Amino acid sequence: MKKEIDNKLNLKNIKPTAMRQLVLQVLTEQKTAISLPELEQKFEKADKATLYRTLKTFQEHQLIHSIEDGSGSLRYALCEDFCTCEPEHLHVHFLCNKCGKTYCMKDLPVPQPDLPNGFEFSSANFVVKGICSNCKK
Amino acid sequence: MKKEIDNKLNLKNIKPTAMRQLVLQVLTEQKTAISLPELEQKFEKADKATLYRTLKTFQEHQLIHSIEDGSGSLRYALCEDFCTCEPEHLHVHFLCNKCGKTYCMKDLPVPQPDLPNGFEFSSANFVVKGICSNCKK
DNA sequence: ATAGTTCGTGCAACCGAGTTGCAAACTTAC
DNA sequence: GTAAGTTTGCAACTCGGTTGCACGAACTAT
């Protein structure tokens, strides 16, 4: 729904351009996190730099979050509607060794480990690797 | 001590060449994990490819482990003497946002989260980011 | 010791992800 | 409509990682 897309953009104070609508559309349809190169392939005819800057804008406005899953490229996924990307909202990600997809485990919060004295927590990246339920079958 | 270096290599079934001794020496002196580009700089005159392959060899023989800390390059650190890099031996890593160093939190095991049905755990990468005790002072 | 094989090293080249500069196209405010 | 600001597209570049190839050292069997 085009309305919803624009809504989301407005909600996060992002000017809705054609490009941004398209990218957000794709992101919304994705069940797993997507990388810049993967996003590039979704459009037969879009510029890498533009997509790159679009993702950057989205991230700055906390519409999406990025995941370092060690696959060689950053992956991006939609944030929950009212996510502010605070440490408390961090969740675990899962990278399937077989299909290579990265899942957001939205129900699995990242535990905050007891750091040694003097170490200050500000954020975390927790990626679990293994076989996803889809590949397991 | 040259003896100890050779010992470690032998223990892991790695033929001790001059190059490997030097690299292991550097790795042993490091208190924090080191990346390939950083390692390159430690030697005024060594080939990237050779260092790359040396690290690869070390990793295959479980002398070192690699950490995806999201700094843009993989970092490497020595394993504990009898580490076999099993999930149970995984520990948390800490990336300082200020000095950029990556610490092995050897005493902080990576928790194994309750994955949804059908997802199979095989390994994990848990990087905490913040300010290290050294930069905090 | 010699010839043949394997293994390690160094150089060059390449790949792919990410990033930047710049100019053209488009928006917005006046 | 014009000026100022924003977004886009293209090209170029950086940098980490990786590979092919050839030379040389080390190891093996005769």
TrEMBL record, chains A, B:
Origin superkingdom: Bacteria
Gene Ontology terms for molecular function: DNA-binding transcription factor activity; transcription cis-regulatory region binding; zinc ion binding
One Gene Ontology biological process: regulation of secondary metabolite biosynthetic process
Necessary cofactors: Zn(2+)
Chain residues that bind Zn(2+): 96, 99, 132, 135
Tagged with keyword Transcription regulation: yes
Pfam families noted in UniProt: FUR
Cofactor details (free text): Binds 1 zinc ion per subunit.
Keywords, comma-separated and alphabetical: DNA-binding, Metal-binding, Repressor, Transcription, Transcription regulation, Zinc
Record keyword Nuclease present: no
InterPro entries referenced in this protein's UniProt entry, alphabetically: FUR (IPR002481), Fur_C (IPR043135), WH-like_DNA-bd_sf (IPR036388), WH_DNA-bd_sf (IPR036390)
Family: Belongs to the Fur family.
Name the record gives this protein: Fur family ferric uptake transcriptional regulator
